[in-house]
Every structure is written in structure tokens, then in C-alpha cells.
Amino acid sequence: MREVLSYSRRGSRFTPRQAEAWAAHQADWVIPDEAVDRPDFSLAERFGREAPLVVEIGSGIGEATAVLAAARPDHNVLALEVWLPGVADSLWRVAEAGADNVRFCSVDAVWSLEHLIAPASLTELWTFFPDPWRKTKHHKRRLVNATNAALASSRLVPGGAWRLATDWADYADQMRDVLDAEPTLEGGPVERWDERPVTRFERKGLDVGRDIADFRYCRSEA
Description:
The protein is α/β, with parallel strands linked by helices. Helices cover 36% and strands 21% of the residues. The protein is built from 8 helices and 8 strands; from the N terminus they run H-E-H-E-H-E-H-E-H-E-H-E-H-E-H-E. S-adenosyl-L-methionine binds at residues 56, 81, 108, 131.
């Protein structure tokens, strides 16, 4: 049976600026896809230290990644993004921000949560403007579903937060319904997280009159 993915691969051609950033930083900050299959793979080794871990699913072009990671130099930030030009864009953004505590990985986020992230090891999980898969027949490809919510929650430390945002009203409804139903999570809609910068995707939504929904759910302490 064909695997149902929450993303689609897009083009991989780099602009000159992206190519320059890739050449300068890929070796240090991008985890090769094949590396995660090695029996001795270690995230701590990739970061060069042990530190509290944050994962961002779908870092896009790194607008939020750079700002939020730079504000958390004592954390390791793993950014999961399958679009390589987006990763290349992110590299120069995190470099400009001085956020050398970020590592990028282009392996499927659900697989990565299951195989690379230990249970109860994340202080925060960020999912900002995931692909809404607007057609009803494609809703099954949305990242936020009951199975993935249970997996994500299991990776959070007790009290750890999953922060989400979307500009699609029906996806916001789905997020709330799914996460409210996950027994290990507590939370709901919140005011816009003021630390999160306004990204290109958010601006596009605002420009066409869509409301932005922010959520914060925490792993139960019990």
C-alpha cells in the first residue's frame, strides 16, 4: 500500500544566493538523508553537544526558525523541511541571525519523530502553517491527525509545548478537534505567539483576508 505523506516534493533548483548558502553551510548544518539510517546515528553528535531539544516541522524558508532559534542559544533546534531550496534559504537566514544551534533534516517528519526523537525528549514542537491540503479528498494527508498527535505528544517532555498556527479555518477546526481528543495533551487556541515572526505564508493568508489561528497544547504532567 502506498504511504500517505503529509507533503509533496517540489522543485530543487537553487537561486545563486541559495547555492552560495548551501555551499557555505550545508556540511555543518544539514544532516544528510542517508546519515539517519546508520545504526550509530546521534542527534547530539550532529549538534556537537547535549542540550534541550526543539523540533520544527516544516521550517519553510527559515523565517521563524532563525528568529526563534537565535533567541534560544541554549537549545538544539532540529528543523525538518523536505524542500531543499527552502533549506538553502534557511541556511543564510540562520547564519545572519547567528543561530548556529540549528540543524536541518529533509527526511519525512513523521518518520523522524518516530525513529530519531526519543520519547519524552522534546521541550517544544513547532508546526507553523503546515500544508492545508485544501481539497476534501486530500484531507487524509494533513499532518495533524489522531495518530500523529499521539506520536508527537509522546515525544514531548511532561509540560512540553506543541505550538501550531494555520490560516485555513477548516484545518484550524481539525487541529482543535484532534488535539482536544488526545488524552495526553492539554490546551487549545491562544493569542498569537508574539515571539513568532510574521512569515511569508502568514502574510499571504492575511493579504487575502484569512484569520490566523494559533494553538498551544502541552503534554500532561501526570
